[in-house]
Amino acid sequence: MAAQIHVPFLLTRAGAVSALTLAAVGGSVLVPGAASEALAATAHANKALQVASSKKGAPYKYGASGPSRFDCSGLTLYSYKKAGKKLPRTAQQQFNKTRHVSASSRQRGDLVFFHSGSSVYHVGIYAGSGKIWHSPKSGSWVKLEKIWTKRVWYGRVR
C-alpha cells in the first residue's frame, strides 16, 4: 500500500527538480510504505523515551538492565524492549546495530553514543534540546542531563 507524502519535506528518487516542481504546484509523491515505516519508528522512539524518563531516580548498577537499577546500556536496552524493539547488551554493540544519523538529523528517541576514538563507552536516549536520559555512573542514578561533549555519535533504532 502506497502512502501519500507531501513533497515540501521529502525529496525522492524522482529527483530534486521534479519533487520541487511538484511542491511548487502543491503536488505530492507516493512512496510505498514510507509513512507507515516512519510512523512506526517514531512511535517506538517516543515510547522508549517515555519509559526511560519514567525511570528517573533509579540507581546506577553496573551490568543491570532493570527494572529498578540500570547501567547506561541497560537503560537503553530496557526502554526499547518495552517499546517493542530488541537491542544488544553493550553500548558498542548497540552502536553497531543502529542506523547512524548526523547531529543535524537527530530526533527524540535516537541513541546518543559517547566515544573516544572509535570506541563507544557510554549511551543515552536523546530527549531533545541537547539533553539525554541516561544512567551515568556508579553512585549516580537515571537522570535528564545536557550533552556535555561534542564527541558523540547518533544512532536510530530500526
H-E string: EHEHHHEEEEEE
C-alpha Rg (nearest Å): 18 Å
Helix content: 25-40%
Estimated structural class: alpha+beta
Summarize model confidence as the mean pLDDT. Answer: 84
Measure the end-to-end span.
20 Å
Q: What is the tally of beta strands?
A: 8
Shape: globular
Number of helices: 4
Poorly predicted parts: 1-31
What order do the strands of the largest sheet run in, or round the barrel if closed?
A: 3-8-4-5-6-7
Beta strand %? 25-35%
The biggest beta sheet is recorded as: 6 strands, antiparallel
Please describe what this structure looks like.
The chain has helices at about 15-25, 35-55, 70-80, 90-95, and strands at about 1-5, 30, 100, 110-115, 120-130, 130-135, 145, 150-155. With about 160 residues, the protein is α+β, with helices and mostly antiparallel strands. A hairpin with an 8-residue loop joins strand 6 (about 130-135) and strand 7. It has four helices and eight strands; from the N terminus they run E-H-E-H-H-H-E-E-E-E-E-E. It has a six-stranded antiparallel beta sheet. Helix 2 (about 35-55) packs across helix 3 (about 70-80). The model is unreliable at about 1-30 (pLDDT under 50).
